[in-house]
Amino acid sequence: MLIDSDIDIDIATRQFSEGYGFSASAVTPTCWNVVQKREHVLIGLSPNNSYFSAARILRLAHWACASFASMHFLVLKEPYVRSLEAVGYSPARARAKAHKALAAVETRARRALESAGIEDPDSRILTWQKLQTNSRYLQLRQDTYERFVIDEQLADACLGEARRYLYSHAQQLAGNASMDTRSRLAVTYYLNEVPLFVDTASIVGTGSSAYCYHKMSEFHHNLYARKLSLQPSPHQARIVLMDSDSQ
């Protein structure tokens, strides 16, 4: 099954859920074992991404609440500001654009959670502000940044994701900054997400957790295949959630 343009992973035998128009699969046997506990799922929501329409986020909320004991949506503002600056927006313009985009995503998520029966929807949205007071997240992030500095393989893997982001926005690039300079600014977003790829459970206080997104990046492929020095917790899974009619 083709998950992303350059990655081919056979996950058909690890499909564990169908409903609300989605088909969910664990990406490795280890992830499969974690997912079977159905304790928690974290769904990443990307700003300024047409995939995350109000209708799809509504379905995501209902699917998550029906499939797992608990769930969160992930919405990160501050790192996204750095991504926009890397594209070429001024700091002020990047912050304004990020605020508008993330506010729209949060509103959609909040309404979707209310529809799914969550009485306190804000408690199910994991934001940048909340993570800044989470000691376990901060510990994992510090470890990630330290590894990024000393581990060339990990740095190359993370910078590769930053470059892919920039290439996907090639027509919007402004200014004279080099690709290397842009990449080292854009990589901030990815580095701040990494702790949630490796040990969400310890951050949100559950026994296990699965990170959920509709695409599988090269970094995630190598991370969950345990090809990097940084490795996910035994309690961490990765799910690919696709529209059923897209397979």
Largest sheet: 7 strands, mixed
Which topology does CATH recognise? Answer: Rossmann fold
Number of domains: 1
Structural class: alpha/beta
The CATH C-level name is Alpha Beta
- Overall pLDDT: 90
Shape: globular
Approximately what portion of the residues adopt beta-strand conformation? 15-25%
Order of helices and strands: EEEEHEHEHHEHHHHHEHE
CATH-scheme architecture: 3-Layer(aba) Sandwich
Assembly classification? single chain
Spatially, the strands of the biggest sheet line up as: 3-4-9-8-5-6-7
Q: What is the name of the CATH superfamily?
A: Cyclodipeptide synthase
Would you kindly provide a written description of the structure presented here, covering whatever features stand out?
This protein has 247 residues and is an alpha/beta fold. It has a single domain (2-48, 60-246), classed as 3-Layer(aba) Sandwich (Rossmann fold). Helices cover 51% and strands 17% of the residues. The chain is built from 10 helices and 9 strands. The strands form 2 sheets. It has a 7-stranded mixed sheet, with helices on both faces. A two-stranded antiparallel ribbon has the order 1-2. Mean pLDDT is 90; it is low at 1-9.
